[in-house]
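Exam revision sheet. Question 4 asks you to relate a sequence to its structure. Input first:
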Amino acid sequence: MEMINHIYVDTDGIPRTINKHVKVNMIEVKYSHGESADDIATHYGITLADVYGALSYFHDHRDYFEARRRQAEPYIEQAKQYSSDLKAKIQARLDTIQDE
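Answer key, structure tokens:
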């Protein structure tokens, strides 16, 4: 029986496609937000088999991805706050420029 593998785990422990080394998580996020497998394959320049391989890998290793998401949550919240603060500073500067 021939086994075809579309996913490998890099030296940092991140699952990626064999073709183009796209992160499995990136493919799953696009797919879960409504992008078609065809569009994802075209976007990354990978095969449909790579897309479906990544989605299969994601579902087979859901616990791993959930744990990574939980680890990232504090950093995501910090980034949201920083973005909000930066947006407010930019808007204040734009308001100052418009008043001149």
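Marking note for examiners. The longest strand covers residues 7-9.
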